[in-house]
Amino acid sequence: MFQRLNDECYLVTNNQAPFISFSAFENIPGIRAGFSTKLGGVSTGHLKSLNLGFDLGDDYDNILTNYKIISEAIGFDVNDIVLTNQVHKNDVVPVTSNDKGNGLFYKNKFESADGLITDEANLVLTVRGADCTPMFFVDRANRVLATAHGGWAGTVCDIAGNAVRKMTEMYGTRPEDIIAVIGPSICPKCYEISEDVAERFYEKFGRRAYEYTNVDNYVNNRILTPGDDTHYYANLWLANRQNMIDAGVLDENIHNSCLCTKCMMTLFYSHRGMKGRRGVMSGFLFKDY
Question: Which residues contact residue 105 at a Cβ distance below 8 angstroms, ignoring those fewer than 6 apart?
């Protein structure tokens, strides 16, 4: 069963753990993607219930069980998962079948990587978050896959563009062949930032940070919106979209799920909304062949 949330995504409820699926990938043979919610797991307390994050006070056995639950729901082998240590930078690392189980079944060997990339089948790329922007990239011609994690720091240092460039450099991807999806993350109405962080966005985007963009599904349609004298609101969705376009991805091939983790806390964890007492969700991207 599924519940259509908007034109870009729907909530799949066939199994114990509901997850978000993306319409943009439906017509690409063999491509599978999903993003977990906070529902359907075994964690308790403020981590209730499908916590997929470490170092939050959860038992390892709970976390592993949660990964097994979501893998069964989406339809992949939990042993095929590759995790990385996300540190809010722009490093994108290539992974192979030799990296299966990294960070889940043995110590994470990627100490600094906010993006993963592969051309191999049955290798599950992940991207975790609880407000930060998860991004999924599929080269529909060469069947190269990438995931990227963009908080404000990763966004202003262009993790999205680096993922696209890495796909091109390593596997010959043409940016115009990429289908990109922006997953559930905090919306621009909810993401208040300080003046010094706003300055970082201005350093990256210049005057474009304040220019209105005539696109649907991005709420206020500009990257920075002034709040009071010392605070602003940042549009991570629009900023990452711009980074993708600057890297050569076609505007019409960029899809925004338009799901705000803070607005929808019955479904998602939100670092801002839950004042840090929260679990972690994950996106998963893989191909069957």
Answer: 79
Closest among 113, 100, 44 to 71, alpha carbons compared:
100
- The structure tokens listed for 278 are 């929260």
Q: Cα separation of 132 and 134, whole Å?
A: 6
| Coil/strand/helix, residue 246 | helix
pLDDT above 90: residue 148: yes
Task: Please give the distance of CA 20 from its chain centroid, rounded to a whole number.
Answer: 12
End-to-end Cα separation, the chain, in angstroms: 25
**What would the two tokens of residue 88 be?**
């809010």
Residues composing the chain: 289
Q: Where are the alpha helices (DSSP H) in 60-194?
A: 60-74, 152-156, 159-171
Q: At 252, which amino acid appears?
A: E
44-84 pLDDT, tens digit per residue, is 999 999 999 999 999 999 999 999 999 999 999 999 999 99
Is residue 20 within 8 Å of residue 35, measured between CB atoms? yes
pTM score above 0.70: yes
Average pLDDT score, the chain: 97
Cis ω on the peptide bond leading into residue 23 (within 30° of 0)?
no
